[in-house]
Amino acid sequence: MVTEFLYLLFFIIASFGLALLLFLITYNLKPSLSDSEKASIYECGFTPLSSTRQRFDIKFYLVAILFIIFDIEIAFLFPWTLVATELSIFINFEVFFFIILLTVGFYYEWVSGSLKWH
């Protein structure tokens, strides 16, 4: 039992040591910031055309959130497709109910105009 904890302790020490080694290597190999253009915020060299604190349209956030929500919900269906024939009818009914809820949610988003850009 003690040897199992020694293995665990060895792997913890080895992982911290490797992380520290990689950090030190990348810290020493980084390029210097002697060029003022490289140290500037806009590395491309162009001066900004407007303020960076301007308002951003909320539609971009809304569409991104809707995409993430529906994408994650659809990802739940992939494991079900692998074992659908081995499951009981009750579980398959639950999955079809989930698909119906997804369809109703998508229809609501479509009708409410959340997916329109203008």
List keywords for this structure.
118 residues; mainly alpha; 5 helices; 69% helix; flat
Task: Describe this protein's structure.
The protein is mostly helical. The chain has a domain at 58-112. It has 5 helices and no strands. The protein has helices at 2-29, 36-39, 58-75, 77-83, 89-112. The radius of gyration is 26 Å and the shape is flat. The termini are far apart. The model has no long low-confidence stretch (mean pLDDT 82).
List the helices and strands and how they pair.
Blueprint: H1 2-29, H2 36-39, H3 58-75, H4 77-83, H5 89-112
Give a short overview:
The chain is mainly α and 118 residues long. It has helices at 2-29, 36-39, 58-75, 77-83, 89-112.
The separation of the N and C termini measures 66 Å
**Low-confidence blocks of residues:** none
The beta-strand count equals 0
Estimate the global geometry from the Cα principal axes.
flat
As a percent range, the share of strand residues is under 5%
Instruction: Output the radius of gyration.
Output: 26 Å
Estimate the mean pLDDT confidence: 82
Total of DSSP H or I helical runs spanning 4+ residues: 5
Note the run of SSEs as H and E.
HHHHH
- Helix- and strand-based class? mainly alpha
Fraction of residues in helices? Answer: 55-70%
What can be said about the biggest beta sheet?
none
